Amino acid sequence: MNRLRFTDGIRDSIPIALGYLSVSFGFGIMASGAGLSPLTAALISLCNVTSAGQVAGLSVMTAGGTLFEMALTQLVINMRYALMSLSLSQKMDKSFTIPHRLASSFFITDEIFAVAAGKSCDINKKYMYGLGILPVLSWTSGTLLGAVAGELLPEAVKNALGIAIYGMFVAIVIPASKKSAGTAAVVAAAVAISCAMKYIPAFSFISPGFAVIICAVAAALAGAVFFPVPSSDDKEAE
Amino acid sequence: MSTMIYIAVMAGVTYLIRMLPNVIFRKKITSPLIKSFLYYVPYATLGAMTIPAILYSTGDIITAAAGLTVAVILSLKERSLIEVAVSACAAAYITGLLLRLTEIVH
């Protein structure tokens, strides 16, 4: 029988942790550019552990948005975690009592979910904690380093690093769009709406946080109606 | 508005989204519409957050466009997240250097 250990989780998490270190560095620079102190930036990363949600949250903060806007932005952008959490809940073995479910839910990210969900057997709590600890630490320390460096680095380097996190977004979206026409259509629609809101003066009253929500909900809903995703059972049947 | 209140709301909502389904729901979602909607939300979000914001991420639209172009090309080749992110930064940096060089020359 396959018994996953804490160290198996650690080993599987090393590539994730390295990736997070570089991307969170970019977030740190972005946060320091927005006027946050390095410790505040690191605190955001420590208690959120998510890229897109943090970037959007930062823009709500700097725009002086309402708390309702902040909550709704996080809800929409991070809604995918609900699906991952749901999926992982079916894969957790008996070692996951309620307190361990409460604790391990904290670090469900796209990458950690992908690795955990990809295991052929059920996962136990030791493995899950092993998988989570390094990515959370590297996400936080990378942010701290980036925010400190943001105050020290020459302007030209800092400017160039500002694109890092968006580069990662592109690297997530494009391969998925290549594989699925539905995804490509959804992304194209979201981009079109986003540009319309940015450049058409009539929409200028919409704050950046709400703009992202409107784009995401409209494009994803259209995608769900016109390009329903085949269920996993159908996929297995193919 | 205090920064700490923003962070608390942000972290609280994000945690609840991750925690509630794991602890409360055990049944699988069966509605194809909801499943498809949840499947598409991350891509729609990232698309909307990236364009046009990426063009203003380096303080110069030309260096940002260079970074975006490199990111798109490498992503089409399905390179890793880090590779794409670092290459986009390098492209933006080098383009910035070249722009300043041409300014000096003129």
Overall description:
The complex is a heterodimer of chains A (238) and B (106). Chain A is built from 13 helices and no strands. Chain A has helices spanning 6-33, 38-48, 51-62, 67-77, 79-89, 98-104, 110-117, 125-152, 155-161, 164-179, 181-199, 208-226, 232-237. By secondary structure, chain B is an all-alpha fold. Chain B has one domain. In chain B, helix 3 (61-76) runs antiparallel to helix 4. The longest helix of chain B is centred in the C-terminal third of the chain and has 25 residues, at 81-105. The radius of gyration of chain B is 20 Å and the shape is elongated. The model of chain B has no long low-confidence stretch (mean pLDDT 90). The interface between A and B is large, with 99 and 76 residues.
**Spatial shape of chain B:** elongated
Number of strands of chain B: 0
From the N-terminal CA to the C-terminal CA of chain A, the straight-line distance is: 30 Å
In terms of per-residue confidence, which ranges of chain A show pLDDT below 50 for 5 or more consecutive residues?
233-238
What is the residue-averaged pLDDT of chain A? Answer: 88
Radius of gyration of chain A: 19 Å
Biggest pleated-sheet summary of chain A: none
Question: SS-based structural class of chain A?
Answer: mainly alpha
Oligomer: heterodimer
**Total beta-strand segments of chain A:** 0
Biggest β-sheet strands, sense, barrel of chain B: none
Low-confidence stretches of chain B: none
> Which series of helices and strands of chain B comes N to C?
HHHH
- Interface with most residues: A-B, 99 and 76 residues
How many individual domains of chain B? 1
| Class inferred from helices and paired strands of chain B | mainly alpha
N-to-C order of helices and strands of chain A: HHHHHHHHHHHHH
Q: Percent range for helical residues of chain A?
A: over 70%
